[in-house]
Structure formats: C-alpha cells, structure tokens
Amino acid sequence: MLKIHAPPNLIKPLLSFDLSFLSSISATLSPLQSARLHRFRLRRTSIRAVVAMSIPKFDSTGQSMPEHVAGNWYSVPGLRLRDHRFMVPLDYKNREASSKISIFAREIVAVGKEEQPMPYLSYLQGGPGFECPRPTEASGWILKACEEFRVVLMDQRGTGLSTPLTPSSMQQIKSAQKLADYLTHFRADSIVNDAEFIRVRLVPEARPWTVLGQSYGGFCGVTYLSFAPQGLKQVLLTGGIPPIGDGCTADSVYRACFEQIIHQNEKYYKRFPQDIEIVQDIVTFLAESEAGGVPLPSGGILTPRGLQFLGLSGLGSSAGFERLHYMFERAWDPILVPGAPKQISSYFLNTYENWVSFDTNPLYAILHESIYCQVSFHAF
Length: 380
Known about the structure:
single chain, Rossmann fold, 8-stranded mixed sheet, AB_hydrolase_1, hydrolase, AB hydrolase-1 domain-containing protein
C-alpha cells in the first residue's frame, strides 16, 4: 500500500498423418526427388498443425475432443514455441460425471533444440488467477532456463486460454451458490492435478519434471509435494511459501508485511520528496469532495483509502517507483479558464484504474485471501 502523508483526521497512514514410411524411401531418391519429398513433408506438417489446432471441443456427433492436441513449432526471436491443449475434468474427484474444461500450455525451447532430449521444467505462475507470461523474445529467466530445460508455461485453469473465468463468462452461472461451488474447482489441488495430467501425456515415459513456483505458484509447488511427489524431480520456489503454522491467516501474513511496506514508502518519498505535497493535496481534495471521493471512468469512486492501493503495484514492481512518480506529475488538470475549479485529471484517473483493476482476472480478488487460510490449505 502507498503511505499517505496527511492529517490523521483525513486518512490513516498505510495500507493423423503418418509420414514415417517416407524416411525409409528417402535414401533411394535422386536429389530432385528428395527436394520434392522435403516440400511435401513441410506442406503435410503445416496442414497437420492447422487441423490439430482448429479441432473444436466437440465434433458433429457431440463427442469430446482428444485429451491432448499439439500444434506445430513456431518462433519468436531466440525461441521456438509449441502450443498444447488438454481436455481435463472440472472435478478430478468425480471424473466420470464431471464436465470437461480446456487447459492450455506452451512448450518453449531454445532455437535448434526442438528435437533434443532435455528435462522438462513446468512454471507455476503467481496470483492466484493470472495466466503465464507470453514470451516475445529470448530474455530473462526463460532464456536462462532454456539452456537446460524444455520450459512448459501452463495457464492455470480459469486464466489465459485455459477456459478463462471472466466477469462476463461467470454471469452464465445464475445462482451465487452454484458459482461458489464451481469456483471450488479452481484451487491449488486442481492446478496440481492439471499439471500431472499434462506431465504424463507430454513428458516422454512420464518421467518426473522440475517445477518452478513463483509467489502463489510456490503455494501450488508445496501442494504438489504433498499430493503428487512422484511427479517431481525438484521444486524451485521464488518467494512463495504457504502458511503451515497455526493461525496463519491472511491478516497475520499482511501484518508481517507492514514493516516492509513502511520501508518501501520511506524509500519512495526519499527518492521523490516533491510527491509528498502532491499526495497530501490529492488526499485533501478527495476527502473534501462530495461522497468522500471523485468518480472514476468505470463508475466507481476514488477515495483516500482507494488511493493507497497504488502501492500494491507502484511500490512492489520493477520500475514501479518511477511509474508512480510520473503518474503523480500529471495528477491535476491545468486551469485553462481563470476561476475554473481545480480537478484531478482524467489521465490520472484512467491510469489509476489500469493499475489497480482486476477486471480481466477476477479470480485474484475471489481467491486471494482464501489461499492463506489454514483450513483451506488442509482442504486442498
């Protein structure tokens, strides 16, 4: 959260085409015939990829699509990628009666390593409720991982291309109770089951793989160790350890973070001391406005307390300090006509909404606090 320097009365500080026969005859062909055969292979491979990736969930007879459909290799700078789609049970405890959902995973290797035998690394995204990164080039941790592994980026169920849950799609479930029951199938236990479903179909001989869990992905990694250790060669965690002691609720975890939040606020205002006055002016303006805030473009209200949520992204992300500062630089509209009232700029309000909105990933808001609950953890 973003700390606000303001009077206490205003705000509290903080918070299948089988082509195998072609290989057997290629050695007997002339160079011209070999070239034609090569072009034929490429055309058929492309057709196979297009057909595979366009298979609908259900065919004309109502039969469900295959459990696993793999696409063809394609490229971004420095990387080769291949898309996989899996049809999995919504409810693994009742597989036969359960409906099916689609899980999307992207396989990534360094250029030239498509056919090389390498161990697999499955990445578990943080969140909850966020899809895996979409690589645009060979960089960062993916570049490093691809030196030794085939990387698998699985969109966790309900996110990205894995039967995504959006505000509009969830409106199809009219009953609040039925929606709550449906959402129980999107927790860490189901994510682990999806990962195992993929591993035994993707990894040769269903060998164990390495799991890299980032933030909430670390929670899922520990759940993986508890529920399916046979599928794991090793588990790597980056800042995501689930609460395993008594009383480790979301509130207790947040309280443990207060010291770091204060430290981040102090660092920010030390770097940009001119923003102290700007934030004070914004808080005073919001508090004195009708209804205790100003309208947001989406129809909500920006209040002093809501302003503090900027710290969630601004104080805890790469280049967040700088982005936050440049946002505060444009907090106010210029006075074009003498006597015109002072008002917060539409630029500031739109930028605020873009930073704090979870409209595209509602699972974060729905499941975030429950992942810290000791009872829920055991229920996984």
